[in-house]
Amino acid sequence: MRTRWQRFKESYMLYSFLRDPMAVTCFVILAVLFFTAFAAPIIAPHDPYNTKTIDIMNAQIPPIWEHGGNPQFLLGTDAQGRDMLSTMLYGMRVSILIGIGAVCLQAFLGIVVGLLSGYIKRLDNILMRIADVQLSFSTYMVAIFIGAIVQAAFGVAGYDEVAVPLIIVIIGLAEWPQYARTVRASVLAERKKEYVEAARIIGLSKIRIMWRHILPNTLSPVLVISTVQVANAIMSEAALSFLGLGMPVTKPSLGSLITAGFEYIFSGSWWITIFPGILLVTLILVINLLGDWVRDFLNPKLYKG
C-alpha cells in the first residue's frame, strides 16, 4: 500500500507545480511571509504591544541607511516610536488572521446556503433572494452599521478588544453570497447524476447525501474562490482601517499602519506608509498569483498534456 505522501509525490499536481517557476516563487515568498508573521514574537527585535519599551522620543526615526537612522531600528520608527520592522511583522500576522478567518466564515455560510438552495427546491428562491439582498450592501456599509453598534455598546476601549473578531464577522457576512451562488450552481449540476440517484434509492437522508456525496464534488471551485477571497479580505481590512473602521492604532495591522503614516508621507516620514504598503502589495500579489495557478490547474478545459 502506498502512503498518502508517496501518492502526493507522484501526483500530477506536484509535477505541474514544480514546473511552474512563478507558482514556486510565489509559494516560497508566501511561506516566508507566513513564517515571519506567525514567528513575530520570537524573531521581531521589539514588541510593539509592550508600552514599557516604547519611547515617544524615538518617534519618526528614519531607516538605518538614511541620515539620522538608528541601528536599533532597521526600518525606522512610526509616529508613536514603535520599531517599523517589528510592527509590520505583528501587523501582517493580524492581517493574515483576519483574511483567513473571514474566508472560513464566508465559506461556511456560503457552502451551507448553497447546498440547501441547490438541493432543496422549496428553499431555493428564499435563500437566493436573501443572497441578492446581501449583495446589495457593500462591505463598508456593513462595517459602518455593525461598527457603530459595537462602539456604542462597548465603547472605544471595548472595541479595541473585539476588533479582530468583529472585522472577521463583518467581512465574512458581506462576502458569503459568492460562495453560495458557486456551490448552488455545482449542486444543481451534481444532483442529476447517477450516484445521487443511487444514494436516494438506498434510502440515505438528504443531509447525508448533501454533505457526504455532493459536497466533495463541489469543492474545486470553492478552493479557487478561497485563494482569491483571502487576498480580497486582507484588502478589505486595509480599506476599512484606512477609513477608520478597521483595526485601532494600538493593535496594528498593515492597513492601520498605512493609515497611521499617511499624514506624515509628505512631511518626510515616508517610511511609515511606504514599507507597510510594499509588504501589503507583495502579500496580496503572491496570494493572487497562487490563486491563478490553482484556478488553471483545476480548470478541465485547459490542456494539461
Automatic annotation (TrEMBL):
<comment type="similarity">
    <text>Belongs to the binding-protein-dependent transport system permease family.</text>
</comment>
<feature type="transmembrane region" description="Helical">
    <location>
        <begin position="94"/>
        <end position="116"/>
    </location>
</feature>
<dbReference type="Pfam" id="PF00528">
    <property type="entry name" value="BPD_transp_1"/>
</dbReference>
<feature type="transmembrane region" description="Helical">
    <location>
        <begin position="137"/>
        <end position="156"/>
    </location>
</feature>
<dbReference type="InterPro" id="IPR035906">
    <property type="entry name" value="MetI-like_sf"/>
</dbReference>
<keyword id="KW-1003">Cell membrane</keyword>
<keyword id="KW-0813">Transport</keyword>
<keyword id="KW-1133">Transmembrane helix</keyword>
<dbReference type="InterPro" id="IPR050366">
    <property type="entry name" value="BP-dependent_transpt_permease"/>
</dbReference>
<protein>
    <submittedName>
        <fullName>ABC transporter permease</fullName>
    </submittedName>
</protein>
<dbReference type="InterPro" id="IPR025966">
    <property type="entry name" value="OppC_N"/>
</dbReference>
<keyword id="KW-0812">Transmembrane</keyword>
<keyword id="KW-0472">Membrane</keyword>
<dbReference type="Pfam" id="PF12911">
    <property type="entry name" value="OppC_N"/>
</dbReference>
<feature type="domain" description="ABC transmembrane type-1">
    <location>
        <begin position="92"/>
        <end position="291"/>
    </location>
</feature>
<dbReference type="InterPro" id="IPR000515">
    <property type="entry name" value="MetI-like"/>
</dbReference>
<feature type="transmembrane region" description="Helical">
    <location>
        <begin position="270"/>
        <end position="291"/>
    </location>
</feature>
